[in-house]
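Holo model, zinc ion. Inputs:
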Amino acid sequence: MLPYRYIKNNRAKHYRITLKADHIRVTIPRYGSKRRAEVFTESKKEWIESVIKKSVQRKIYSTEEIETLRAQAKNYIPERVTKLAETHGFVFNDIRIKKIRTRWGSCSRRKNLNFSLYLMLVDHTYIDYVILHELSHTVEMNHGPKFWALLESVCPGSKKLDREMRDFSNMF
Ligand SMILES: [Zn+2]
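Output:
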């Protein structure tokens, strides 16, 4: 377990835990105390441990590995998007493959779709899920009930897949 470092920050409004390379920083807000920060940290113990475990699994990819993933993604994703769009009657504009870790995909108002090349690291079921998620945004731009109903109609079990994809995103 990494050591804790308690740091008072008068601009902070809440207690906050940040994982650093060699310690865990606990931010104490303006009206907070170290005693209460310790109680807060104790209540978050399991969460902290799971984050540390995942960060160990997180791998740094070499330029060569990234280019391989990009080539695989360019070869696979546009064709798959076209197929799934045809099957379910979605219309989109353009597809781009990007090197982003923070999001699996996105869809602009102009129906341009972006996908992360890291998708090539997960099972094809999940790639299909992300594609159908973004294609559903060409109809429903938000995450409201209509969006989820549409997504569920083209991708049964979508909520469960969504949760699992969030777990994955912490691992790369
Ligand atoms: Zn979305």
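Residues 4-57 form one domain. The CA atoms of residues 10 and 127 lie 44 Å apart.
Archived with the compound record.
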